[in-house]
Amino acid sequence: MAKWEGINEFVAVAETESFTAAGQRLGISTAQVSRQISALEVRLGCQLLYRTTRRVSLTEQGRQLYQHCRPLLDGLEEAQRLVSDQQDVLRGRFRLTAPVNFGEQRLAPLLAEFCADYPEVQAEMVLSNQRLDLIQEGLDLAIRIGELPDSSLKARRLGSRELVVCASPAYLQRAGTPQDIGDIARHRCLLGTTDIWRFRVGGQPRTVKVNGAFRCNSGVAVLEAAQQGLGLAQLPAHYLEEALSSGRLVTVLSAFTPEPEDIWACYPPNRHVTATVRAFIEVLRAAFDPADMTSKP
Protein backbone atom coordinates (compact mmCIF):
# COMPACT_ATOMS: atom_id res chain seq x y z
CA MET A 1 0.00 0.00 0.00
CA ALA A 2 1.32 3.46 -0.90
CA LYS A 3 1.18 5.22 2.45
CA TRP A 4 1.64 8.65 0.86
CA GLU A 5 -1.42 8.33 -1.37
CA GLY A 6 -3.94 11.05 -0.63
CA ILE A 7 -1.59 13.18 1.49
CA ASN A 8 -0.95 15.81 -1.19
CA GLU A 9 -4.67 16.00 -1.92
CA PHE A 10 -5.55 16.24 1.77
CA VAL A 11 -3.07 19.04 2.44
CA ALA A 12 -4.27 20.97 -0.63
CA VAL A 13 -7.91 20.73 0.51
CA ALA A 14 -6.96 21.70 4.06
CA GLU A 15 -5.23 24.85 2.79
CA THR A 16 -7.74 25.90 0.13
CA GLU A 17 -10.89 24.68 1.96
CA SER A 18 -12.17 23.49 -1.41
CA PHE A 19 -11.97 20.26 -3.41
CA THR A 20 -12.19 22.26 -6.63
CA ALA A 21 -9.41 24.66 -5.68
CA ALA A 22 -7.25 21.77 -4.49
CA GLY A 23 -7.68 20.02 -7.83
CA GLN A 24 -6.72 23.20 -9.68
CA ARG A 25 -3.61 23.58 -7.55
CA LEU A 26 -2.54 19.98 -8.13
CA GLY A 27 -3.59 19.83 -11.79
CA ILE A 28 -6.04 16.95 -11.28
CA SER A 29 -9.81 16.59 -11.31
CA THR A 30 -12.05 17.35 -8.34
CA ALA A 31 -13.31 13.77 -8.46
CA GLN A 32 -9.76 12.42 -8.15
CA VAL A 33 -9.11 14.64 -5.13
CA SER A 34 -12.28 13.34 -3.48
CA ARG A 35 -11.42 9.70 -4.21
CA GLN A 36 -7.92 9.97 -2.83
CA ILE A 37 -9.06 11.63 0.40
CA SER A 38 -11.89 9.15 0.90
CA ALA A 39 -9.40 6.30 0.49
CA LEU A 40 -7.06 7.99 2.97
CA GLU A 41 -9.88 8.27 5.52
CA VAL A 42 -10.66 4.59 5.07
CA ARG A 43 -7.01 3.62 5.61
CA LEU A 44 -6.73 5.76 8.74
CA GLY A 45 -10.13 4.74 10.06
CA CYS A 46 -11.29 8.28 10.84
CA GLN A 47 -12.95 11.30 9.27
CA LEU A 48 -10.50 14.04 8.33
CA LEU A 49 -12.85 16.63 6.81
CA TYR A 50 -16.27 18.06 7.48
CA ARG A 51 -18.00 18.45 4.12
CA THR A 52 -20.94 20.78 3.47
CA THR A 53 -22.33 22.27 0.27
CA ARG A 54 -20.63 25.57 1.08
CA ARG A 55 -17.28 24.75 2.64
CA VAL A 56 -14.82 22.12 3.79
CA SER A 57 -13.16 22.21 7.20
CA LEU A 58 -10.86 19.99 9.25
CA THR A 59 -11.96 17.64 11.98
CA GLU A 60 -9.72 17.42 15.05
CA GLN A 61 -8.02 14.35 13.57
CA GLY A 62 -7.65 16.21 10.28
CA ARG A 63 -6.06 19.18 12.04
CA GLN A 64 -3.51 16.92 13.74
CA LEU A 65 -2.68 15.14 10.49
CA TYR A 66 -2.26 18.43 8.64
CA GLN A 67 0.12 19.82 11.28
CA HIS A 68 2.36 16.77 10.86
CA CYS A 69 2.10 16.46 7.07
CA ARG A 70 2.74 20.06 6.04
CA PRO A 71 6.37 20.09 7.29
CA LEU A 72 6.95 16.69 5.66
CA LEU A 73 5.73 17.95 2.28
CA ASP A 74 7.83 21.10 2.64
CA GLY A 75 10.87 18.90 3.26
CA LEU A 76 10.07 16.76 0.22
CA GLU A 77 9.66 19.83 -2.00
CA GLU A 78 12.90 21.26 -0.65
CA ALA A 79 14.77 18.05 -1.46
CA GLN A 80 13.36 18.02 -4.99
CA ARG A 81 14.35 21.65 -5.53
CA LEU A 82 17.91 21.01 -4.33
CA VAL A 83 18.33 18.05 -6.66
CA SER A 84 16.79 19.93 -9.58
CA ASP A 85 19.17 22.85 -9.01
CA GLN A 86 22.13 20.58 -9.62
CA GLN A 87 21.08 20.08 -13.24
CA ASP A 88 22.56 22.22 -16.00
CA VAL A 89 19.22 22.85 -17.74
CA LEU A 90 16.46 24.90 -16.12
CA ARG A 91 13.43 22.71 -15.55
CA GLY A 92 10.53 22.12 -13.21
CA ARG A 93 7.29 23.82 -12.27
CA PHE A 94 6.85 27.15 -10.54
CA ARG A 95 3.82 29.26 -9.70
CA LEU A 96 3.74 33.03 -9.36
CA THR A 97 1.16 35.70 -8.69
CA ALA A 98 0.92 39.35 -9.72
CA PRO A 99 -1.62 42.18 -9.96
CA VAL A 100 -4.00 41.62 -12.88
CA ASN A 101 -3.19 44.45 -15.28
CA PHE A 102 0.52 44.58 -14.48
CA GLY A 103 0.67 40.82 -14.99
CA GLU A 104 -1.17 40.99 -18.30
CA GLN A 105 0.80 43.90 -19.73
CA ARG A 106 4.30 43.49 -18.32
CA LEU A 107 4.79 39.98 -16.96
CA ALA A 108 2.92 37.77 -19.44
CA PRO A 109 5.21 38.56 -22.42
CA LEU A 110 8.33 38.02 -20.29
CA LEU A 111 7.02 34.75 -18.87
CA ALA A 112 6.07 33.45 -22.32
CA GLU A 113 9.54 34.27 -23.66
CA PHE A 114 11.15 32.62 -20.64
CA CYS A 115 9.17 29.42 -21.18
CA ALA A 116 10.07 29.45 -24.87
CA ASP A 117 13.76 29.74 -23.98
CA TYR A 118 13.50 26.90 -21.43
CA PRO A 119 11.04 24.28 -22.78
CA GLU A 120 11.40 22.05 -19.69
CA VAL A 121 10.02 24.79 -17.43
CA GLN A 122 6.34 24.69 -16.52
CA ALA A 123 5.00 28.01 -15.24
CA GLU A 124 1.63 29.07 -13.90
CA MET A 125 0.75 32.72 -13.28
CA VAL A 126 -2.18 33.56 -11.00
CA LEU A 127 -3.37 37.13 -11.57
CA SER A 128 -5.16 38.76 -8.66
CA ASN A 129 -5.40 42.23 -7.16
CA GLN A 130 -5.57 40.55 -3.75
CA ARG A 131 -2.30 39.82 -1.97
CA LEU A 132 -2.48 36.04 -1.89
CA ASP A 133 -0.91 33.95 0.86
CA LEU A 134 2.05 32.29 -0.86
CA ILE A 135 2.22 29.31 1.49
CA GLN A 136 -1.51 28.63 1.50
CA GLU A 137 -1.82 28.98 -2.29
CA GLY A 138 1.30 26.97 -3.06
CA LEU A 139 3.03 29.90 -4.79
CA ASP A 140 6.77 30.24 -5.31
CA LEU A 141 6.89 33.92 -6.20
CA ALA A 142 4.79 37.07 -5.91
CA ILE A 143 5.35 40.30 -7.84
CA ARG A 144 4.16 43.22 -5.73
CA ILE A 145 4.20 46.96 -6.24
CA GLY A 146 4.56 49.80 -3.78
CA GLU A 147 5.24 49.76 -0.08
CA LEU A 148 5.42 46.27 1.38
CA PRO A 149 3.60 45.56 4.64
CA ASP A 150 5.53 43.92 7.44
CA SER A 151 5.57 40.20 6.74
CA SER A 152 7.77 37.16 6.95
CA LEU A 153 8.31 37.13 3.17
CA LYS A 154 11.71 37.77 1.69
CA ALA A 155 11.74 40.54 -0.93
CA ARG A 156 14.06 41.65 -3.71
CA ARG A 157 13.66 44.94 -5.54
CA LEU A 158 13.24 44.54 -9.30
CA GLY A 159 12.83 48.15 -10.39
CA SER A 160 10.21 50.88 -10.17
CA ARG A 161 7.34 52.49 -12.04
CA GLU A 162 6.11 56.09 -12.20
CA LEU A 163 2.59 57.40 -11.64
CA VAL A 164 1.42 60.03 -14.10
CA VAL A 165 -1.63 62.32 -14.10
CA CYS A 166 -3.07 62.68 -17.58
CA ALA A 167 -6.15 63.76 -19.52
CA SER A 168 -7.32 64.09 -23.09
CA PRO A 169 -6.78 67.39 -24.93
CA ALA A 170 -10.57 67.65 -25.43
CA TYR A 171 -11.21 67.41 -21.68
CA LEU A 172 -8.56 70.01 -20.87
CA GLN A 173 -10.00 72.37 -23.47
CA ARG A 174 -13.39 72.14 -21.77
CA ALA A 175 -12.29 72.08 -18.13
CA GLY A 176 -8.95 73.87 -18.19
CA THR A 177 -5.50 72.52 -17.31
CA PRO A 178 -4.75 72.11 -13.58
CA GLN A 179 -1.64 74.02 -12.51
CA ASP A 180 -1.49 72.92 -8.87
CA ILE A 181 -2.70 69.91 -6.91
CA GLY A 182 -5.25 72.20 -5.26
CA ASP A 183 -6.94 72.52 -8.66
CA ILE A 184 -7.85 68.81 -8.67
CA ALA A 185 -10.93 69.47 -6.52
CA ARG A 186 -12.46 71.40 -9.45
CA HIS A 187 -11.97 68.55 -11.92
CA ARG A 188 -13.64 65.24 -12.69
CA CYS A 189 -11.34 62.42 -11.62
CA LEU A 190 -11.31 58.85 -12.89
CA LEU A 191 -10.67 56.37 -10.08
CA GLY A 192 -9.06 52.96 -10.08
CA THR A 193 -8.50 50.82 -7.00
CA THR A 194 -7.92 53.82 -4.72
CA ASP A 195 -9.27 57.34 -4.28
CA ILE A 196 -5.96 58.55 -2.86
CA TRP A 197 -3.61 60.13 -5.39
CA ARG A 198 0.08 60.54 -4.60
CA PHE A 199 2.21 63.60 -5.33
CA ARG A 200 5.45 65.27 -4.30
CA VAL A 201 5.37 68.91 -3.20
CA GLY A 202 8.54 70.72 -2.23
CA GLY A 203 10.39 67.43 -2.13
CA GLN A 204 7.92 65.93 0.35
CA PRO A 205 5.26 63.28 -0.33
CA ARG A 206 1.68 64.52 -0.39
CA THR A 207 -1.59 62.65 -0.85
CA VAL A 208 -4.91 64.01 -2.12
CA LYS A 209 -8.28 62.32 -1.72
CA VAL A 210 -10.14 62.68 -5.01
CA ASN A 211 -13.73 62.20 -6.09
CA GLY A 212 -15.15 61.17 -9.40
CA ALA A 213 -18.17 59.85 -11.23
CA PHE A 214 -16.22 56.99 -12.85
CA ARG A 215 -14.51 54.18 -10.97
CA CYS A 216 -13.19 50.78 -12.04
CA ASN A 217 -10.63 48.36 -10.61
CA SER A 218 -9.13 47.97 -14.10
CA GLY A 219 -6.42 50.39 -15.17
CA VAL A 220 -7.25 49.60 -18.80
CA ALA A 221 -10.83 50.78 -18.24
CA VAL A 222 -9.62 53.97 -16.53
CA LEU A 223 -7.25 54.58 -19.45
CA GLU A 224 -10.12 54.21 -21.93
CA ALA A 225 -12.28 56.63 -19.93
CA ALA A 226 -9.47 59.19 -19.93
CA GLN A 227 -9.08 58.88 -23.71
CA GLN A 228 -12.83 59.42 -24.07
CA GLY A 229 -12.44 62.77 -22.32
CA LEU A 230 -14.19 61.90 -19.05
CA GLY A 231 -11.64 63.49 -16.72
CA LEU A 232 -8.20 63.33 -15.10
CA ALA A 233 -6.57 59.97 -14.34
CA GLN A 234 -3.49 58.98 -12.37
CA LEU A 235 -2.03 55.82 -13.90
CA PRO A 236 1.29 53.96 -14.07
CA ALA A 237 3.40 55.27 -16.94
CA HIS A 238 3.54 51.90 -18.70
CA TYR A 239 -0.20 52.13 -19.40
CA LEU A 240 0.21 55.45 -21.17
CA GLU A 241 3.10 55.07 -23.61
CA GLU A 242 0.99 54.66 -26.75
CA ALA A 243 -1.72 57.13 -25.75
CA LEU A 244 0.85 59.83 -24.92
CA SER A 245 2.94 59.27 -28.05
CA SER A 246 -0.18 59.46 -30.25
CA GLY A 247 -1.43 62.62 -28.53
CA ARG A 248 -4.67 61.03 -27.31
CA LEU A 249 -3.57 61.94 -23.78
CA VAL A 250 -1.25 64.57 -22.36
CA THR A 251 0.40 64.75 -18.95
CA VAL A 252 -0.51 67.38 -16.39
CA LEU A 253 0.89 68.33 -12.97
CA SER A 254 4.29 66.96 -13.98
CA ALA A 255 6.02 69.21 -11.44
CA PHE A 256 4.31 67.23 -8.68
CA THR A 257 5.10 63.69 -9.90
CA PRO A 258 5.55 61.40 -6.86
CA GLU A 259 8.50 59.18 -6.11
CA PRO A 260 8.37 56.04 -8.25
CA GLU A 261 6.75 52.94 -6.78
CA ASP A 262 9.10 50.02 -6.22
CA ILE A 263 8.44 46.65 -7.89
CA TRP A 264 9.30 43.66 -5.70
CA ALA A 265 9.83 39.93 -6.09
CA CYS A 266 8.60 38.28 -2.88
CA TYR A 267 9.05 34.65 -1.91
CA PRO A 268 8.48 32.51 1.18
CA PRO A 269 11.16 32.32 3.85
CA ASN A 270 12.72 29.01 4.81
CA ARG A 271 12.17 27.68 1.31
CA HIS A 272 14.89 27.05 -1.21
CA VAL A 273 14.55 29.36 -4.20
CA THR A 274 15.07 27.19 -7.26
CA ALA A 275 17.46 27.99 -10.06
CA THR A 276 14.44 28.44 -12.33
CA VAL A 277 12.84 31.04 -10.06
CA ARG A 278 16.17 32.82 -9.60
CA ALA A 279 16.66 32.93 -13.36
CA PHE A 280 13.19 34.41 -13.91
CA ILE A 281 13.83 37.04 -11.24
CA GLU A 282 16.95 38.08 -13.17
CA VAL A 283 14.86 38.35 -16.34
CA LEU A 284 12.50 40.69 -14.50
CA ARG A 285 15.36 42.77 -13.11
CA ALA A 286 16.79 43.22 -16.59
CA ALA A 287 13.39 44.29 -17.92
CA PHE A 288 12.32 46.63 -15.12
CA ASP A 289 15.63 48.19 -14.10
CA PRO A 290 18.31 47.54 -16.75
CA ALA A 291 20.65 50.19 -15.29
CA ASP A 292 20.71 48.27 -12.00
CA MET A 293 22.07 45.16 -13.74
CA THR A 294 25.53 46.72 -13.73
CA SER A 295 25.63 46.31 -9.94
CA LYS A 296 24.11 42.91 -9.22
CA PRO A 297 24.35 41.78 -5.61
UniProtKB/TrEMBL annotation:
The keyword Transcription regulation applies. It comes from the Bacteria. One of its GO terms (biological process) is DNA-templated transcription. One of its GO terms (molecular function) is sequence-specific DNA binding. Keywords: DNA-binding, Transcription, Transcription regulation. Residues 10-59 form the HTH lysR-type domain. Pfam families: HTH_1, LysR_substrate. InterPro entries: LysR-type_TF_proteobact-type, LysR_HTH_N, LysR_subst-bd, WH-like_DNA-bd_sf, WH_DNA-bd_sf. Belongs to the LysR transcriptional regulatory family. This is Transcriptional regulator, LysR family. It comes from Ferrimonas balearica (strain DSM 9799 / CCM 4581 / KCTC 23876 / PAT).
